Amino acid sequence: MVRLKLENVCKNFEGFEALKNVSFTVAAGEKVALLGHNGAGKTTLMKAILGLQPHDGGRIEVMGAAPGSHAARMQVAYLPENVAFHSSLTGREQIRLYLRLRGQPVELADELLERVGLEHVSRRRIGTYSKGMRQKVGLAQALIGNPALMILDEPTSGLDPISRRKFYAILDDMAARGAAILLSSHALTEVEARTDRIVILSKGQVVADDTLSGLRKEAGLPTHIRIAAKPGAADQVAAMLNAGRSNGVTVDLTCAPEDKLARLREIAALGPKVRDLDVAPPSLDDIYDHFSRRAER
Ligand SMILES: Nc1ncnc2c1ncn2[C@@H]1O[C@H](COP(=O)(O)OP(=O)(O)O)[C@@H](O)[C@H]1O
Ligand SMILES: [Mg+2]
Question: Which chain residues have CB less than 5 Å from ligand 2, an ion?
Fold first, then answer.
């Protein structure tokens, strides 16, 4: 079931095209990452989805309804990029306030705070919270009313790896309950394999929309192999493998993904001349750069 549908969405700011024919969908239970460098148009797109800033062309359907309509607002949660709280309120008071604003029972606050792992600090002022804790307050706010669609603008930027993992565990739980999730990030390393699909936005245009493994395959970037040779054997190993580069200790090779196994067999055949080896597939940053840059050409 499609929860969010974008068709050729365009947005101009006084002649500047911030969004150009953006099309993709997010289904129930799906986690989609919207990736793009600063200024790519992620926040602009999210604001259009929420109806906070109208788009100029194309169609946006939120649960079949128009962005910002009552029907849409009742089912959509939003975590803005720079979420600001009352620093003098405690986490518990802040969430109770949000619940009241949303017409929900304030007693739900403790359960929400526990879900995001803030129960131990819920009676402390938000002014004393770390960045990760404040993001969790934002997430607790976004969980109010079990939304059908969650729009999260760079929710994990600035989080340490452990906080990020917990954050994604909560999103997994929401997706398992059927929520559709669209979250933005400016780094592929932040979303990794934690999302079902990755949509890359570059200068307002969608330049890729696939799973991480699909993107990896399509990019076809080289794999790096670093060989540690036995003392004194590096130059000989480099020559036997036709590898240009040797620093006297290690030998570096690059090869196409489909040639990797053949290369590894050649290396293994060198026997004791090889002491160790490391195989590095293209990094997430390499893949992201590939698609972002391809669009610029
Ligand atoms: N209200 C606005 N007026 C003019 N230009 C804007 C406005 N909002 C965003 N932009 C421009 O649109 C582009 C996309 O911005 P934004 O959506 O915030 O990018 P991102 O969230 O991906 O970093 C940027 O070049 C930005 O300067
Ligand atoms: Mg932004």
Answer: 42-43, 81
